[in-house]
Amino acid sequence: MTRKKNEETQEKIMACTKKLFQEHGYNKTSIRMIAKEMEFKNQASFYIYFKSKDHLTAMILEENSKEVRKFIDSLEWEDTTPLHDLILENLIISEILKDEANRRFYTEAQWQQTLPSMMRQVPNYIDYLHKNLETTITKEELELNIFSYVKLFCSMCQAIDNKETNVTYLEAMKRMPYVFLDLVGVERRLHETIIHETLDLFHRIPEAEIQKLFFFHE
User: 185: buried, middle or exposed (CB in 10 Å: 19+, 13-18, 0-12)?
Assistant: First the structure.
């Protein structure tokens, strides 16, 4: 099998799996279901292309992360810093996850990711952040704290969606940028200014442009 053919089949499997995730949810979608939808002879064919469902999911998450960062780069706004871009990415993802189907997929999928697999979603990202942010923590701490933030975010969303709290998603999201800045080691005296400046930028983005970045579309 040629490399190009292998990549084409991987892309078809990813598209097929996203459809199944949208219809059945991440946890209820099995490799058997994916193999059947792809019309493979058996489940073993799946493992020619992916090591596991989590490996496949990590590639879907990585693809989306790249699209979000590519979109941010395309804005070409003046007088912004890497920290503004980082918070903007955070706000865009939070906006995507206002949609229940997208949120359930993201939280269920990321909950299963290990630290190494999550870091592979964003190659060289930690090096970039540590180099460009005025952070007070080491690169290793930064990596662990971002991993912890994603897990915290998932736990919070699951508690909200399972009606374990009266706090709404929108109410919780107001605090998350502050939590994020704390975890990446940015001085608290800078938080308010950075977040307000980034919110001003975020509100300039048409809603239709953010909808293009959704995992799933109606």
Answer: middle
pLDDT of residue 1: 56
Q: Taking the domain 1-50, which CATH number applies?
A: 1.10.10.60
Give the C-alpha separation, 81 to 87, whole Å: 10
Residues 6+ apart with CB under 8 A from 184: 86, 129, 133, 135, 137, 142, 145, 146
| pTM strictly above 0.70 | yes
Which residue has tokens 């906006």? 95
What percentage of the chain carries pLDDT values higher than 70?
A: 99
Domain coordinates in residue numbering, the chain? 1-50, 61-211
Distance of CA 166 to the CA centre of its chain: 25
Amino acid at site 67: E
